């Protein structure tokens, strides 16, 4: 990530700003875990405000990247990624019950789903623009992640459960997240500089699988709330800062 922030296409003030946001994000997320507390020692150490602030920092970083890249070939990619991260932040607010909606899970799924549609549009559009559109790499990667997403849904959400509309809604949502990971992997297969992007999408999917286990299957282990954020947060950061790769 430091290499991306130090990209020669950026001015020195732009580099410092993006690096500062990256450091601030890390301080909020990891500092919240290190210095936070959980009196019952069983669910989460991170305070709510550090989690929301870390996510808001990535929104600011995304739009900063777009501002700096808008006149380049990476402008559309940056715009879609920044917008996708913004919807991710809305999903965070919904899941934290900070938005006036009746069902936080449905609201979160809707916001994150829109965010991932924007992510996919960014990945596919840039792949086509940059000639990273090999059908075998792209669709083969998507197919593999679809299979993994389907298996995860069956094992974590559906198996042994009395299926409700929410259980069924989790299936297309999970496949949507798997699609993002698949398209990101397709880019990484063709250009290794996109490996951090693919890792970020995979971390997001992993975080969602853990959350689904908690919501639908009663999954619980010590500090599960922190593990969800320590996979989700870095995943979103790697996706947002992948804008630096497209500047190359």
Question: What's the arrangement of secondary structure elements?
Answer:
Layout lengths: L1 H4 L6 H24 L12 H22 L5 H21 L8 H27 L4 H24 L6 H26 L4 H23 L6 H17 L2 H4 L2
Q: Helix/strand/pairing class, anyone?
A: mainly alpha
Q: Which series of helices and strands comes N to C?
A: HHHHHHHHHH
Which value, in Å, is the CA radius of gyration? 18 Å
Distance between the termini: 14 Å
Largest sheet: none
User: What fraction of the residues are assigned to beta strands by DSSP?
Assistant: under 5%
**Which word captures the global form?**
globular
What keyword list fits this structure?
248 residues; mainly alpha; 10 helices; 0% strand
Write a structural description.
- The chain is mainly α.
- The protein has one domain.
- The chain is 77% helix and 0% strand.
- The protein is built from ten helices and no strands.
- The chain has helices spanning 2-5, 12-35, 48-69, 75-95, 104-130, 135-158, 165-190, 195-217, 224-240, 243-246.
- Helix 3 (48-69) packs antiparallel against helix 4 and helix 3 (48-69) runs parallel beside helix 9 (224-240).
- The chain is globular and about 50 Å long.
- The mean pLDDT is 92.
In a nutshell, what does this entry contain?
This protein has 248 residues and is mainly α.
